[in-house]
Amino acid sequence: MAARTPDADREYLDYATYLGLDTLLAAQRPLSDPPHHDELLFIVQHQTTELWFKLMLHELRAATALVRQDDLEGSFKILARVKHIQTQLLNQWSVLETLTPTEYAQFRYVLGPASGFQSHQNRLIEIALGKRDRRVLESFRHTPAVLAELEDALRQPSLYDEFLRWLARRGFDVPREVLDRDVSEPYEANDAVTEVVVAIYQAPAESWDAYEMAEKLVDVDETYSLWRYRHLKVVMRIIGQNRAWTKNYGIILGLCKHPKTPPAIAMSFVQRLNEKDLKHLTTDRNAKEGLRLLAKKMLTKGKV
Ligand code: HEM
User: Fold this and answer.
1) Which end of the chain is more exposed for a tag (fewer CB within 10 A), N or C?
2) What gap in Å lies between CA 236 and CA 224, rounded to an integer?
3) Under DSSP, is residue 241 helix (H, G, I), strand (E, B) or coil?
4) pLDDT of 229-287, one tens digit each?
5) Is the distance from the beta carbon of residue 238 to the nearest atom of ligand 1 less than 6 Å?
């Protein structure tokens, strides 16, 4: 059969074909038996999140490339979209919150060991934004192609790395060791970079673009933290506090550091932090004072 031209394809095109609705709408496959009414909500909530993740990743990569090409204005337009995607994701939690603990418990068995921990797009977003933590790769050993994609992403400069390079090109005093660092390793705070950022904030009118980019990065970071926090609240609401997730160190650390975590919960989790994170907590200005004191006490008593 002769190959069809794009124009000929378009003649056959309708709404469902263009959007691949056959595939999309066939991808919700509840496993509960007998079928549980609420499993569809659970699947759709995850799938729509993954779709928004896909778009967010696409946009973050484009924004990073634009910064690399010195087109900061172009990246602002894209980052504005990223912010709206994040807001959408944040608001979306309220749909899942209508699932009660009883309903969830009735079909939880179908999930087996599957967990959001294995969302590779979530990890790619974190990496694109600058997080470097090889421990999360462990969850992807059984999917070599995904593992390779994550490892490759870890070797790419993040949006923040590209911003630092742009600042240097614009004449800001970003140290050479920061610009030439191995981007696959975690970023370490640098006093000279802090001075650059302070200078930008002290005189925004002298470099509006640098100031606006710094604000956009803080916005994206803050909204990402809020998304994670809402996830924790949903988890607490639906499966309570004494389940497997409280064994997850990253989640415990996140809860300790989050200013909105109820003090009693934060205090109980601080006991499980390692020395390095306890030290960070003692100087974390976002953490509640009681928590900082407890961390200090634990360090001086040599409890860790
Ligand atoms: C009933 C609803 C949900 C429950 C009970 C739940 C529970 C959990 C638990 C227990 C973890 C910790 C990892 C583990 O122990 O395996 C986790 C992690 C995670 N979940 Fe959920 N989850 C829910 C909904 C969702 C939804 C809708 C998403 C959207 C994709 C999601 C994304 C994630 C991600 C990305 C992580 C990894 C977090 C990190 O380590 O940064 N979860 N979830």
Assistant:
1) N
2) 19
3) coil
4) 999 999 999 987 655 556 667 667 777 776 666 676 778 778 888 888 888 888 887 77
5) yes
Q: Is 96 in the pocket of ligand 1 (CB under 6 A)?
A: yes
Q: How far does the centroid of ligand 1 lie from the alpha carbon of residue 222, in Å?
A: 19
Nearest CA among 220, 223, 224, 213 for reference residue 68? 213
Residue 264 Cβ < 6 Å to ligand 1: no
Ligand 1 pocket member 104 (CB < 6 A) = yes
Top mutation candidate among 245, 249, 252, 255 for ligand 1, by most atoms within 8 Å of CB: 245
Residue 245 DSSP one-character state: G
Query: What span, in angstroms and rounded, lies between the C-alpha atoms of 236 and 242?
Result: 9
* Token pair of 286 as six digits: 């976002």
Chain segment 121-161, per-residue pLDDT in tens? 999 999 999 999 999 999 999 999 999 999 999 999 999 99
Mutate to test the pocket of ligand 1, among 235, 239, 252 (most ligand atoms within 8 A of CB): 235
Cα–Cα distance for residue pair 25/48, rounded to 1 Å: 12
Query: How many CB atoms lie under 10 A from the CB of residue 232?
Result: 17
* Residue 68 pLDDT: 98
| CA 240/CA 108 separation, integer angstroms | 14
pLDDT single digits (tens) 190-228: 999 999 999 999 999 999 999 999 999 999 999 999 999
List CB contacts of 40: < 8 A, sequence separation 6 or more. 28, 30
pTM value?
Answer: 0.81
Residue nearest atom 40 in ligand 1 by C-alpha distance: 117
Helices 249-257/208-239 angle, 10° precision: 120
